[in-house]
Amino acid sequence: MAARLLPFGDDRARPHQPSPIEITVDGVVAAGVAGQSIAGVLLASGRLDWRRTSSAGAPRGLFCGIGVCFDCIVTVNGDRDVRACMRRAADGDEVLSQHDTLPEVTA
Amino acid sequence: MTSVLVIGAGPAGLAAATAARARGAAVILLDAADALGGQYWRHLPAERPAADERILHHGWSRFTALRDGLEADAGCEIITGAQVWAIEAGADAAPTVHALIGPSDGGRRRGRSFTPDAVVFATGAHDRTLPFPGWELPGVFTAGAAQAFAKGERVAVGQRVVVAGAGPFLLPVAASLAQTGAKVLGVYEASRTSALLRGWLPKPWQLLASAKKGGELAGYVGSHVRNRIPYRLGRAVIAAHGNERVEAVTIAALDADWAPIAGTERRIAADAVCVSHGFTPRLELPIAAGCRITGDGFVEVDTAQRSNVPGVYAAGEITGIGGADAALAEGGVAGHCAAGGDARDPELRGTVRARDNAGGFAARIEAAHGIRPGWPAWLGDDTIVCRCEEVPYGRLRDIADHTCSSGLRSLKLSTRAGLGICQGRVCGRTVEQLLGTAGGAEAVSSDRRPIAAPVRIGELAATLSPQEPTEHVQGKDTNV
């Protein structure tokens, strides 16, 4: 059970047939459709979390969906801290999940 | 020619830009997203057009008329993908607005600064979500996230979904989820019948004057009946359970102050939960410009939607949570007046009347669905309050007690709550409330963010180069 993309044939809004795109997430291919956000591609591909928090190492993914909470940040084509909900996925995007650990404290 | 900069392209901003153009001003319209419409008219992207997209929206033809009018108008420069990151208050003049333009959070955005004659802030609001045990688990979303992904991507955030919180927004969220193929297990509204009657029953003629709202409500009721979605009052999700992701939630009955009633807990299996307890206005830009904020946390405006700062206007949810009709009317007034018009001008009469009639809506929502003081009873000591810094409730209280912190600034430094990457956007109001610093004498609120959005050092350095244009430029800019 997970998030899912409504199949366009079932959509009462009658969308045009979407163009498929592919991105890689930590090297694994994820399929989406043109115009989706990176978070949308991730969710609809069955991933609910794609980040670990710094202090507890807890899983995080999408929360606010509109660019406010920064829970969904990823690295996109080398740019760190990109809000996956705010960035449209482009065919061929290379997405890396971020697990930023806290710096070691030395005496 | 008067130049007007409008920040935010939702209902208020679109109406403001249109009204300012009607009065002959040169207009620049900025939005951080890459499409117009804001959250209310969040829609499928250009890459995925739909023949009947109007069925997903209220007032869709109003939106397309505003959008098409502005897009066809050479006197309005529309800049999407524009993240305003700083506002420089002017002395007796409108502020300078600094933006980075390009794909969201990209490393190679272009800096642009604007020095218009007038600024209209139409930055809207985002969900206020109260914490509960497990709300940091993947699979817990704000109701706004569910709505954004249903409308903007046709993605249902889960398959068995619980919608909970407070306010009329829960209804369209549930309807959109059902329309996108999710099974909505129930809508749980924290307010009880008595509060709803207190908010919605008085002066019913005012509601009748806003006939569109009635039609909208009837639509949601129809959707709920069709999709067999239970709507329960006086209940809340008080915990989410799961290992690494949401697997179930606990729902409990609440008393009139929203404290859970012992013995009423019920566990429901679900793969997603969408929560909203109202909205928080996005105030950082108005605060940076020096706008006075009311005691209940909104931009103070006069009948012309003018703030206390010369040349600075505000419209929409940042002046009170009143819905799209109020935002449209306020935007119309703000744009007209920012362009040099007067709120008493005859051509503005209908807009002013619509604005004044819509005024009661915000007060009704607050009376019916406003957050009640008993909710912290559902927090445990280990419930995360600040999601970014992972500060649990017990530690927050202990540190505050032990450091004798007083006022929000010292509390943030001692507890770290609100210091993470979201800069208190999610937990700020909650921390203020839990630690009793709301409206404190220090006059510091978590909405004071001098840097309004994260900026890369390289981008900051590039914006200091002298060749960046600061003049008012005409023409289209859609390089995102």
Automatic annotation (TrEMBL), chain A:
SUPFAM superfamilies per the record? 2Fe-2S ferredoxin-like
**GO MF, any single term:** iron-sulfur cluster binding
Q: Does the keyword Kinase apply?
A: no
> What are the record keywords, sorted?
Oxidoreductase
- Organism of provenance: Microterricola gilva
In terms of InterPro entries, this protein maps to:
2Fe-2S-bd_N (IPR042204), 2Fe-2S_ferredoxin-like_sf (IPR036010)
* Pfam families assigned: Fer2_4
What's the protein called, per UniProt?
2Fe-2S iron-sulfur cluster protein
Automatic annotation (TrEMBL), chain B:
Pfam families per the record? Answer: Fer2_BFD (PF04324), Pyr_redox_2 (PF07992)
Q: Which UniProt keywords apply?
A: Oxidoreductase, Pyruvate
Indicate the segments forming the BFD-like [2Fe-2S]-binding domain, all copies: 384-435
Record flagged with keyword Lipid biosynthesis: no
All copies of domain FAD/NAD(P)-binding, residue ranges: 3-331
Where is the secretion signal located?
none
Q: Which GO terms describe its molecular function?
A: oxidoreductase activity
Name the UniProt record assigns to this protein: Pyruvate/2-oxoglutarate dehydrogenase complex dihydrolipoamide dehydrogenase (E3) component
Question: What is the native source organism of this protein?
Answer: Microterricola gilva
